[in-house]
Amino acid sequence: MEWSKTPITAEEATKRIECLPEFLRPIKEAAGAIASKSAWIEDHSGAILAGHYLDMGLIDAHDLVLFPPISREILRIYEKVNDFSLPDILIEFLAHLNGCNIFDLRIYGAPASMARNPPTIDRSRCTPLDISSGRHWRVGYALASEDDLLFASKNVGDDGQIGYFITPAGLVIGRGNGSPEVDERSGPWSNVTDWLASEIGQVR
């Protein structure tokens, strides 16, 4: 799908990106570099789009998609409607950045339409992958504890994929999908910032 979007200057993109907190610095640095060449705002969602992901072969695929923050109030409704609990660190994450795509890395978010009753995915606008659906997608990855929450994934090669889980203690662990292109296990990283610093450098 081709999104309706409006071009913005590199300065405007940088201004928006620099609002991200320090614990998301690896995203700030990578996003700033990508958006320095070309950037847009998706008209319906307000997402920042930057770069052209030529590997995808799609007319409107981007190297970078940063979704705008979602309010904590809507997140509380989202949790209740979806019977789903988010750890504090992910609530803090989504309150500043409601999911993002950086090359092959996808960090899930809470689409606002999924906070409605009944929850639905709005296909008319650019939205993050739904983090509450991770409880269903987790079966495609190597075994992780039921207490660990799937919140991100990364494509590797033709059919390899790594799912990233956060533990109740705040550790981030990676689990492969059985493809020989990826290790069954990766990590752990002690926190989200360390994981971002490690993985964003490997997404291309």
Structural class: alpha+beta
The arrangement of helices and strands along the chain is EHHEEEHHEEHEEEEH
Radius of gyration, CA atoms, in whole angstroms: 16 Å
Domains counted in the coordinates: how many? 1
Intertermini distance: 23 Å
CATH class (first level) name: Alpha Beta
InterPro entries: Knr4/Smi1-like_sf
Protein name: SMI1/KNR4 family protein
Please tell me about this protein's structure.
This protein is an alpha+beta fold and 204 residues long. The chain has a single domain, classed as 3-Layer(aba) Sandwich (SMI1/KNR4-like). The chain is 25% helix and 22% strand. The protein has a ten-stranded antiparallel sheet with strand order 1-2-3-4-5-6-7-8-9-10. The chain starts with a strand and ends with a helix. This is SMI1/KNR4 family protein.
SSE layout:
Elements (H helix, E strand, L loop, with lengths): L4 E4 L1 H8 L7 H11 L3 E4 L5 E3 L13 E3 L5 H11 L5 H9 L3 E3 L2 E3 L26 H4 L11 E8 L3 E7 L5 E5 L8 E5 L2 H9 L4
Antiparallel strand pairs: 1-2, 2-3, 3-4, 4-5, 5-6, 6-7, 7-8, 8-9, 9-10
Helix pairs in contact: 1-2, 2-6
Organism: Sphingomonas lycopersici
Protein name: SMI1/KNR4 family protein
Keywords:
204 residues, alpha+beta, SMI1/KNR4-like, ten-stranded antiparallel beta sheet, 6 helices, 25% helix, 22% strand, Knr4/Smi1-like_sf, SMI1/KNR4 family protein
